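Hi R.,

As promised on Friday, here is the backbone we talked about, encoded as structure tokens. Could you run it through your design pipeline when you get a chance and send me back a sequence?
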């Protein structure tokens, strides 16, 4: 992802702790007798935030907004704060923006880093 710490001119990788957590909390799914794994709801939301706010020029893609809104319905707020906190500062503020539907507020938090 592009790092907000250097005006998005350098890359930023997710911490190993978060990367490991994504794999520790993955969910198993089955389709046509084939098994695969997907991130937990909270890790999935966190990855979508990173994707749109750091990798996609700080613009929300409609398909990601729709996915986040769907995932929020089954997410655990405290777990989401924990996941976001592993990769971004002010996780409480970011999660509050998510639940209030204020995605542009997240952009302001990240750009204020």
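Update: got your reply. Pasting your designed sequence below so it's all in one thread:
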């Amino acid at each position: 992802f592009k790092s907000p710490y250097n005006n998005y001119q350098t890359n930023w990788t997710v911490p190993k702790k978060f990367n490991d957590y994504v794999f520790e909390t993955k969910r198993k799914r089955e389709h046509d007798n084939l098994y695969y794994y997907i991130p937990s709801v909270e890790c999935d939301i966190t990855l979508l935030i990173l994707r749109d706010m750091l990798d996609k020029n700080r613009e929300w893609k409609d398909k990601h907004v729709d996915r986040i809104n769907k995932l929020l319905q089954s997410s655990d707020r405290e777990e989401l704060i924990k996941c976001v906190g592993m990769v971004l500062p002010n996780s409480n503020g970011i999660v509050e923006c998510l639940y209030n539907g204020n995605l542009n507020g997240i952009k302001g938090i990240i750009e204020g880093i």
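One thing I noticed while checking it: The first strand starts at residue 27 and ends at 31.

Thanks again,
M.
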